[in-house]
Structure formats: C-alpha cells, structure tokens
Amino acid sequence: MSSDVFFELRDVHAYYGESYIVQGVSMKVNKGEVLALLGRNGAGKTSTLRTIARADNPGMTRGEIWLEGQPVHAMKSWQASQAGIQLVPEDRRIIPGMTVEENLILSQVAPNKGWSLEQIYSHFPRLAERRQQEGVTLSGGEQQMLAVARALAREVKLLLLDEPYEGLAPVIVEEIEHIVQDIKKSGITTIIVEQNAVAALKMADRAVILDTGELAFEGSAAELLADAELRNRYLAI
Ligand SMILES: Nc1ncnc2c1ncn2[C@@H]1O[C@H](COP(=O)(O)OP(=O)(O)OP(=O)(O)O)[C@@H](O)[C@H]1O
Ligand SMILES: [Mg+2]
Questions:
Q1: Strands 34-38 and 59-67, sheet pairing
Q2: The ABC transporter domain covers which part of the protein (predicted)?
Q3: What are the angstrom distances between the C-alpha of 47 and each of 40, 75, 156?
C-alpha cells in the first residue's frame, strides 16, 4: 500500500455464520479526518465497524485492512485495540458495579495508554462531576460520554463511533458533537456511523454509503449533502 494512506479496507468480506453481510467493501480514510459511514437500517454499518475492530463476529473471510502499514486483517480484537483501533459500540457497555473513574482506570490497564484522567475530565466536565457515581446510573448521554472517554483512555489512532447520538436529546447531541470536534483537533481519525445523517455530515470531511453490504457512494460530505437524489435513495433525508 502507498505509505500516505492512513487507513484502508481492501475488498473486505465478512459473514455471520452462513449470512453474507459485508460484501466486498473497499475504502480509504485519511489521517485526521472524520468519515461518516452511512446507509439504511441493516446496510451493514455496525458489521463493518466490528470487522474493522476484528471482533470474532462477523467473521472476515477475505480482504485486507491496513492501519499505517500494519495488517489489521491479521490481528485479533485485542491486538487491533493495542494498535490504536477503538470501537465505541452502540450499546456503550458500561461496566456495572464500577464508578465512572473505575471504568476509565480499567480501560488504562491494557497498553497503550491514551489521555490521562486529568485530560479526560477537562474535556468531559460532566464525567468529572460524577467520577464517584456508578457508571450504569448515569443518564444515556453521560453514559455515551463515558463510553467515548473510555476509548480515549487508551491510545487511539482510529476511533469508531457506532450511533453516538442515538436516543439522546438535541442538547446532549450538541455536547457530543463538541467532543468529536475536540477529538478531531487532537489529531485522532474518526469513523462515525449515524442514523442522523445530517448531524454526521455536519461533522464529517468525507462520507461513504453502504447498501446491502456494498459501497454505494464515496465522496465529500458536501457533495453528498448537495445530492438530493443520493440522499433520497439511500438515506431518506
Ligand atoms: N449477530 C448477527 N447474526 C446474524 N445476522 C446479523 C447479526 N447482526 C447483524 N446481522 C445482520 O446483518 C445485516 C447488517 O446488520 P448491521 O447491524 O451491520 O446493519 P446496520 O447498518 O448497522 O443497521 P442499523 O442501522 O439498524 O444499526 C442485517 O441484515 C442484520 O440482520
Ligand atoms: Mg448498526
């Protein structure tokens, strides 16, 4: 691969058992950009993120994934995480019985460390205020912030956000948008999956659209926002 490509999927295929889900996806992500990964329900967005993070399911059967010249396709999920790929899943997975701070500290146990607690609390004042509160008792928006903060507590080169705005009030969405902007300023590259395509495109430099496990569009966010036909066909906005 050419050395200036930061992250790349090459003809990636993945299955849940017999179900063929990711059907030959290729895409490139530039360093420091926000890429919106869009598409209708069931298009394969979550499956693509899980494949990138090297989750056991769906199982990748073909293709290559490269991060700064490292073969992510040859890695297990813990190795991908150690290489700097951090997935913030839709269900957030806050650990019960642990405080906000314990959730963050646990994330720093494995190498490599990312933001310090002080750095995290300066970017997430709500979490600072609630550091001794049990994580699962936070509001939905605060749990989303904790899930993102936990990813940042490890070294992040590529942040994968799966529907970070889902179920959240507009004012909380705005707070998380500011955090995504902060993350971008710090040089981290992000792939954001969102049903709220307009909100995602507002943040994004570029966008891709998946349709039944295949790429239907790749281009700039501005280009997609300007193309009513594409938006109607694949995004219903
Ligand atoms: N664990 C699983 N086992 C079998 N099939 C699955 C599994 N998870 C997802 N699928 C199927 O894979 C396809 C893609 O699902 P995926 O969750 O990747 O879509 P998505 O684009 O994230 O959708 P949504 O917008 O609803 O989150 C769907 O047809 C779904 O039913
Ligand atoms: Mg999904």
A1: unpaired
A2: 7-237
A3: 13, 17, 20
Nearest residue CA, atom 7 of ligand 1?
Answer: 16
Share of the chain above pLDDT 70, in %: 98
Is pLDDT above 60 for 2? no
The tens digit of pLDDT for each residue in 43-60 reads 999 999 999 999 999 999
Atom index in ligand 1 nearest the CA of residue 44 equals 18
The HSE-up count of residue 36 (CA atoms within 13 Å, CB side) is 26
Residue 66: CB atoms within 10 Å: 17
Q: Where are the domains of the chain?
A: 7-235
pLDDT band for position 111 (cuts 50, 70, 90): confident
Supply the mean pLDDT for the chain.
Answer: 95
Residue 140 identity: G
What residue ranges line ligand 1, CB within 6 angstroms? Answer: 16, 19, 21, 39, 41-47, 57, 195
Measured CA to CA, the distance from residue 108 to residue 6 in angstroms comes to 25
- Looking at 3.40.50.1000, 3.30.429.10, 3.40.50.300, 3.20.20.370, the CATH number of the domain 7-235 comes to 3.40.50.300
